[in-house]
Amino acid sequence: MADHLEASVTLPSDPASVSAARAFVVGTLGEWGLPADTDGADTVRLIVSELATNAVQHTFGQSPTFTVEVRLERDEQLRIGVTDSHPRFPKRLPAAVQQDNGRGMVIIRCLTAECGGRLRVRPTREGGKTVLIELPWTVPARPVTTAGQQEP
């Protein structure tokens, strides 16, 4: 296998893009050997959903797009990054019992830690930020042939 595999997609900062981000990541990981019907895929699906939702809801219309990047390093570590152009870093909001939001970063942190991974937030050169999740990869990646079929 190559040193790494990577894929990315840029989507409009719109609620409909959240499902597109999930589908992109789960489809990409499926190509790399992670079946969509596993606990690992469910965890990644939820993490991406929360990250994309945050990129749409908490940029207050100041980021017209967001980018989802997926990178598999040496068949050992999966990196998922969501980048937007809003400068404000995510923060934990006080979650009142009746409140419908404010728990996204808590969910992401818990899921990431439960998988033995870590979460980082980095500023971009353009003034935005990337929320980066690093998770151990436990599935041997299968190379994709030029016809798009996975090798057994």
Tags for this model:
152 residues; 5-stranded antiparallel beta sheet; alpha+beta; 3 helices; single chain; globular
Q: How would you portray this structure in words?
A:
- The protein has 152 residues and is α+β, with helices and mostly antiparallel strands.
- Helix content is 30%, strand content 26%.
- It is built from three helices and five strands.
- The protein has a five-stranded antiparallel β-sheet, covered by helices on one side.
- The chain is globular and about 35 Å long.
- The mean pLDDT is 85.
Spans of at least 5 consecutive residues whose pLDDT stays below 50 are none
Strand content: 25-35%
Structural shape: globular
**Portion of residues within helices:** 25-40%
Largest sheet, in brief, is: 5 strands, antiparallel
Total beta strand runs: 5
Order of secondary-structure elements = EHHEEHEE
Radius of gyration: 16 Å
* Sequence of strands across the biggest β-sheet: 1-2-3-5-4
Distance between the termini: 13 Å
Structural class: alpha+beta
Mean pLDDT score: 85
